[in-house]
Amino acid sequence: MRIPGLENLQPLGQGGFATVYRAHQVQLGRDVAVKIDNRVLAGERDRRRFLREAHAAARLSGHPNVVAVHDANITPEGMPYIVMELCTGGSLHDVLKKQGPLPAERVRQLGIALADALAAAHAEGVLHRDIKPANILVDRYGTAKLADFGLAALLDAAGDSTVTRDALSPSYAPPEAFAMAAPTVTGDVYALAATLYDLLAGKPPRPVPWPIESFDHLGEVLRRPVPPVPGVPEDFHNALARALHPDVSARTPTAARLRDELRGAVSTSPPPVAYAPATPAPPAKGKQWVAVVAAVAVVLALGGGAWWLNSRDGTAANAGPTANSPSSQPKASEQPQTPPPYLKACATGFCVEESSCYRGTVSIGGQAATARRIGDCSQEHYWEAFAGGWLSGKIPKVDPDELAATPEVAGVCSREAMAANTRPNVDTAGWQVVAIGFEDEDRNYFHCLASPREGGETTTSAFGSDR
I want to staple 85 with a disulfide (CB 3.0 to 4.6 A). Which of 68, 101, 398, 437 is the partner? Predict the structure, then answer.
């Protein structure tokens, strides 16, 4: 790998989507860090978007608690990269592993500085989207700095339909992120507060059990009250608890507000923060799972995993009767003969009546994900439905192989069926295919989705009729 102006690249670490190198910047005679994405940007539009957001992140370089961005560009092979300040003190994750929980006053001072940096970013219109201890680096002078402001933008621009927000960390990301809500300022506030709590307690405020038992259970975990940390002043705890409120409307609204509350968290104690009981949400339509078809599991899931999409109207699916509940299982002899939602009867069984498309998915450590149906394929999308059918019996929650191997699914979500339902003069050869399962009232059904293997957003349609 060759980066203009850099030499002697030595790997420092590798994640799911990028490799970080230590390199020597020849012109200035200094060592830097360079993060190179492992994927190729799909087209000129994605390249411009990446550079635009990287430039926005670079504007934050003057803040003392933000890792400086020195350069951003794209390799001749089409892989985006960011050249950054090299922080030799490791991350706060490393500090926590070595030292254990930190003193409350030290964490409070860290919180003030980092919240100020986050407020500066938000003032520039830049969201972080993945704040956690591992993304806060320590320079050689001991200063903690927010890193990876450009990473989420880099991942978004990389054109991978399954990783639009794959960097989400369950223990730090806000609950609404797993319902495919758009990233917001309050989501960053939540993640910073979760990080500060982790530094105080040695564990996240709402540890997520692994593997995830069910999405109902995940939702319940993310609404639990935040327990006080022994030895932490009440006003400090309450400032964090407000920022960690699961409901966006009740959460600390800005990073500047969190910074100011941490500054005042010395002698006065605001009223304790109360949470609504973590009761199950009312039954709702459209709980969905996505199972990766075996032939493309590695390409889609980057290591495997189940996929869960949200409700048919584009809103987040709430906890209702599960597919494992006896009351939700129609017997094979009782399977409805009418088409499932958004499908019509055709020669291959049930195919799409009108173009039906989806945005990208969000994986949770490769085990689960969320997505959003947009319906109108003239909007930017990654996935498009081409067929589907009814399901009988048990639908797995998070086991992709079990759903993909179901006879009703395997016989329909095939490349042959995709080709049969492709519009004339459209080439879908080599497209990747996934199956998604839906629970809607007392009927279980599935759709087959397809996407170009090279990824990237599109506003065209390959299946069904135009709207």
Answer: 68
Taking only the tens place, the pLDDT of each residue in 84-127 is 999 999 999 999 999 999 999 999 999 999 999 999 999 888 88
| Sign of the C-alpha dihedral computed for residues 242, 247, 248 and 250 taken in this order | negative
CA proximity to 311, closest of 287, 281, 340, 330: 287
Per-residue pLDDT tens over the stretch 304-351: 222 333 333 333 333 333 333 333 333 333 445 688 888 888 776 788
Tell me how far apart the alpha carbons of residues 69 and 123 are, in angstroms, rounded to a whole number.
18
Residue entry with tokens 């054109």: 159
Residue 426 backbone dihedrals phi, psi, to 5 degrees: -115, 130
Catalytic residues: 129
Q: What is the dihedral of CA 119, 120, 126, 127, to 10 degrees?
A: -30
- Judge whether 202 and 100 are in contact, CB under 8 Å: yes
3-class state of residue 289 by DSSP: strand
> Which residues are paired to 22 by β-bridges?
10, 33
